[in-house]
Amino acid sequence: MTDDFTRSQSFDVPDGFELLPWHRGFGRQVGPLFEKRDATGLTRAFRVEEHHTNGMMNAHGGMMMTFADMCWGGAVEKDEDTWWVTIRLLCDFLSGAKLGEWVEGSGKVVGRADDVFTVEGRIWCGERTLLTGTGVFKVIDRRS
After folding, report:
1. What are the helix (H) ranges across the chain?
2. Distance CA 20, CA 40 (A)
3. Where on the phi/psi map is residue 16: left (φ > 0), alpha (ψ -120 to 50), or beta?
4. Mean pLDDT of 102-110
5. Greatest distance between any 2 Cα atoms in the chain
6. In the chain, fewer beta carbons within 10 Å around the N or the C end?
7. What is the rounded CA–CA span in Å between residue 59 and residue 90?
């Protein structure tokens, strides 16, 4: 699905964001996704394309929850080789993202018990908050 990038997918990306190298599985189906790592932490992003939308041409709620999972789970990464699984994801939908809009998200660790982390997160478009919530994630050993 994401092999044929449109102009906005391949050229209209804000400075500092790089394409996530997900070339297989579910991440490939919901992409392309981008990320930026800087002094403020990890921010992930995507542009709402037609394959992300519902019948109203807004980002589908399932896409927004998938994106929240990827953003908030990223908060537990200590490096690019950290693997984690989602235990719980709670989302509050506050606004919609329209076709063509650039959506960003990030999370912050607010609790930890051994390898289990609680994260608070936010998804936004410009100054508009789209979604907030919490996630619980477990860091796991990488599979070969």
Report:
1. 7-10, 25-30, 61-73
2. 18
3. left
4. 97
5. 44
6. C
7. 18
DSSP codes, 18-64: EE----SHHHHHH---EEEEETTEEEEEEE--GGGB-TTSBB-HHHH
Domains and CATH numbers, the chain: 7-140 (3.10.129.10)
Report the DSSP beta bridge partners of residue 35.
18, 44
CB atoms within 10 A of CB 18: 10
Tens of pLDDT, residues 56-74: 999 999 999 999 999 999 9
DSSP state of 98: B
| Six-digit token string for 9 | 């997918």
Give the C-alpha distances (Å, rounded to integers) separating 59 from 41, 48, 116, 128. Answer: 25, 6, 30, 14
The rounded Cα 54 to chain-centroid distance in angstroms is 18
Rounded CA-CA distance 87/116 in Å is 9
Higher local confidence (pLDDT), 22 or 102: 102
- Token digits of residue 41: 């932490």
Query: Rounded to whole angstroms, how far apart are CA atoms 141 and 84?
Result: 8
Predicted structure pTM score: 0.88
Q: Tell which residue, 115, 72, 114, 110, has the closest CA to residue 90.
A: 72
Residue 32 preceded by cis peptide, ω within 30 = yes
